[in-house]
Structures are given as structure tokens and as C-alpha cells.
Amino acid sequence: MLWSFISRTRGRNRFDLTDWLTWGYLIFGMLLMFGPVLWVAMSSFKTDAALSEYPPSFLPLATQTAMVKGYDKPLPLYEITAGEHKGSVLAQIRRIGLNAQMVDPAHPDEKINVKIGDRQPKRELTFAWDNYSKLFKRFNFMRYFWNSVFITVVATVITVLFNSMAAFALAKYKFRGRMVVFLLIIATLMIPPTINLVPIYLVVNELGLVNTPWAVIWPAVATPTGVFLLRQYMLTIPDDLLDAARMDHASEWRVYWRIVLPLAAPAIAVLVIFSVMWRWNEFLWPLIVLNRSEQFTLQLALNAFQGDLQTSWSGLLAMTILTLLPITIVFAILQKNITAGIAQSGVK
After folding, report:
1. Tens digits of per-residue pLDDT, 26-84?
2. pLDDT tens-digit series, residues 144-174
3. Per-residue model confidence (pLDDT) at position 348
4. For the domain bounded by 61-125, which CATH number is listed?
5. Check: CATH 1.10.3720.10 for 132-345?
């Protein structure tokens, strides 16, 4: 069924020019969107030495090593491409300038000097799982993960509650100045977020919320985007349905909770996805209000891999993949509601 849908053509049992252009466009778009993510995912399994190689490789290839008699550590293997020993596989003892001192693993007593341009490393597919296991030894990963989950979940719940109540009032209640209030809310979208950082920090500091998760949660629970999205969707709910509930002696809270919210589920799912992405990926504001490491989110923990003199790229990439997984899972679960929610929010 799926294959018959994908393999449909405009021509009769053969590909038309339009079909080739469509497939080419789709494949190019897929590579453009998922190519960098796949590259980061594969690079997270590379060692620091493999990450510094040029030209880079897509697969996590590592130089093969072998134990040689008389040496305590495994030696890297190289295939000789020119000279007297062309075609041989030798182990490198050390590199001195443009020459490498090598040894045949079968005859470890004889040392051979080879130019570094006359050899190439023997590679094999190797996944450096240590990049991930070291995260749990070097950092309190689960603590940072819990901080991010707590802030994201609580902020999303409060955001949906506040924005949906504001949208319900603006969509279904008629009062003087309703459009003025709505336009003022929308106008805040034109204010750059960086302008609000100082006054919001002063308020948070006066409330004693600095270095607590609530300093990250409260300032962003009311979003004009969420109010606009939900209001536009709630305008499509018939007023007669709400009036019928009121005639059955339903309170305004009951009308909102039992009728409006279930009917606005597609738009709420879109807002949930947006809110989760905003809160999970937020970096600048948590960096300002969270100074204690035990309160750090995963995004701030990622910043710890960036040193002044040295950066652990293998750990940084592994941490990036672990940070991407939760948001990807949420998006995959709720993505079917995105198109419906956004499309119907624009229908009055």
C-alpha cells in the first residue's frame, strides 16, 4: 500500500519528467535537512583523533592496531604504498619529522624507516561507545537531564494553561477593548527578546528566584504566539455549542475545561511542540539566571565541553545527540497534529 502510493507516476507505467524532478527535489531536500544530523550522529562515535583527520570521513573509521612483541601498548598499522616495502603492513613505533620508524609485526627486532607520504593507515569501522559512557562518569548527566525535563514539562503545562485561558477570553467573550488587548499582545512580537533581559532579571532577582528552575519557567509562560494560535482556532468553535452548555447550568470553567480544550486539541498539540522546543533548546536565559552547576540544564552542560584551550569534540558531539533525542521523540509523536493545527488556526 505504501509502496504503491510512493511509486505513483504521472505517466503511464513509466516516469515522466515531472516525476524525476519531484523525486530529485525530495531527495535533495531530505539530504539537506537530515544530512547534517546524520553526520553529527556518526561523528559522535569517532575518537578525537578521527575527528581531527583531514579529509573527514562520514563513517567512524579508526586506525587498526596490533600488539607487537616488546611493546607495552598496541601500535597503529599502516599499509606501505611506495618504496622497498610497498604492499607490506607495518606497525608504527614513532614519527620523527617527515619519517616514521616502523616495524614488521612478524619480525619485531628489525626497525624500518618509511617516509610518511609512502604510507596510509589501515582503517576499520569502529564505534567509540566510550564517548557516551564517559559522559556519565565526567558529569552528573541524569541531574542535568532531570533539570531540563522538569523545566520543559512544567513550563509547557503552565504555558498551555495560561495561553488557552487568554485565547478563550479573547475568542468567546465580547467586551470593550477586546481587539485592543489582542493587538497589544501581538505587538509584543516586535520587541526583541534581548531588550527584556535586564528588566526581567531585576524582577526575578527581587523575587529571590535566581538559581532556581522557576527563574527559567515563569518569565516565558505567556507567549503571544500561543495566544494568537489558540485564539484563531477557538474562533472556529460554534458559539451555539457553548451557549447550550451554559443553558445546562455549566459554569464558565466547565465550558472551558470540558468543551473548549478538547475541541482545541490539535492547536494545543502544536503549542505543546513549540513550547517543548523553546524550553528544551533555551540557552541564553538559563545561562543568566542559573549559576550553580547543580541547577544547569543540558544546554548549559553542553557549554562545559567548550574549554579555553581545549575542546572535547567527541564528548560534545555525544552530548549533542543525547540532547536531541527527547525533542525528536516528542516531535515524532505529535507531528501529525502540526499541519492540521496550524491550517485550521487560520480558518475563522
Report:
1. 889 888 988 888 888 888 888 877 787 777 888 888 778 888 887 888 888 888 888 77
2. 889 999 999 999 999 999 999 999 999 999 8
3. 45
4. 2.30.30
5. yes
What integer pLDDT is reported at residue 148 of this predicted model? 92
Q: Where are the domains of the chain?
A: 2-43, 61-125, 132-345
Is 0.85 topped by the overall pTM? no
Q: What are the φ and ψ backbone dihedral angles of 178, each rounded to 5 degrees?
A: -60, -45
- How large is the greatest C-alpha to C-alpha distance in the chain, in angstroms? 99
Instruction: Tell me which H or E stretch contains 25.
Output: helix 17-43
Give 183-191 contacts, CB < 8 A, sequence gap 24+. Answer: 185/224, 185/227, 185/228, 186/224, 186/228, 188/224, 189/224, 189/225
Nearest to 280 by CA among 121, 139, 116, 159: 159
Burial label for 315, CB within 10 Å (0-12, 13-18, 19+), is buried
Dist CA 18 CA 25 (whole Å): 10
Cell 478538547 identifies what position?
262
277 touches 327 (CB < 8 A) = yes
Report CA torsion sign: 244, 245, 248, 252. negative
How far is the C-alpha of 328 from the C-alpha of 40, rounded, in Å?
15
Note the pLDDT of residue 82.
84
Q: 208-221 burial by CB neighbour count: b if 16+ within 10 A, else e?
A: ebbebbbbbbbbbb
Task: Look at the alpha carbons of 163, 169, 175, 178 in this order and tell me if their dihedral is positive or negative.
Answer: positive
